Amino acid sequence: MSKFIIEMKKLNIFLVALILLINKQIYAQNSPAPIKLVQFVLTPNHDNWNYKLNEKASIKILVHKFGVPIKNAKITYQYGQDFLQEEKKGELKLKNGTGQISIGTMKTPGFKQLIVKTIIDGQLYRDQIKVGFAPFKIKPTTNNPKDFDSFWEKAINHNKQIPIDPVLTYKPEYSTTKVDVFLVQIQNYKKGQHVYGYLSKPKDNKKHPVLFHPPGAGVKKINPILAFAEQGFISFTTEIHGISPEISKEDYKDISRALGNYWAINLDDKDNYYYKSVYLGCTRAIDFLTSLPEFDGKNVVVTGGSQGGALSIVTAGLDKRVTALASFYPALSDNSAYINNRAGGWYFYI
């Protein structure tokens, strides 16, 4: 994985199409928020939201109702370093519905956030904005252990000795005239332990690139995604807990309560940490996809958001077969940052 960090990997032409497709997926999976009667418009005084160290930032604030600025609107605000203790709180009256707040600067790379609130006609409205200060100069808070590469090479090689034993069940209720959908069970980590997911394939008997799509956080039902296959990918959308996505909602709730904060299970034991089997399951998904006769033999894509974004990065780092990566708002990132006076990512251990 360290070689991956140094060299990255070549992104092929499919990445461009994939990014466009991801945008489509985001809108398809998340219904648009209802239009609010009252809205904030927060505009930084730097056109790309990024500032140099010691450069002062200010935010223009507009409050409007049905697009019309609200005169003399009163707001409360607070700002400070992202997810840390606020530096300042205050109130501001917006003449003609507009105003401006200086949020200062930073001497070290990082982010600042401004949170604003107002009460209009008895209803509370709030919004926030975050700006970066030399964000591309942020340094990691940890270094790879000396045995990092050898540890994962050994784990992956051991996992490959376990028969993958794929079981595919055709799902006509999800399939269309263009896409075949299968429920898939593959063996991972230990004999008798499995990863489940939905495989979607174009119905044209041609060779195609393969795409692995790991899930966001939580213990919850996954659903087949046909859009990737409609764009010419053989896609595999998985869960990570060894649970069939076709069990009842009640069973899901019971398992979710039992697992609790699964991301912390055996955190102090690298050999038995919960995510070890998850990471190996991701490489096992690549094993499965590249074994399919319809695989074009060359293009292997990973993509996901939140936990899925992190798992996409991990998969690309651990598996040299991955040729394209598209990760958005990845979790599992910079978890030790809080002890270095900087906000870390989910799961917020500190």
From TrEMBL:
Domain Acetyl xylan esterase: 139-335
SUPFAM superfamilies in alphabetical order: alpha/beta-Hydrolases
Domain of life per record: Bacteria
InterPro entries, sorted: AB_hydrolase_fold, AXE1_dom, CE7
The name this protein goes by in its record: Acetylxylan esterase
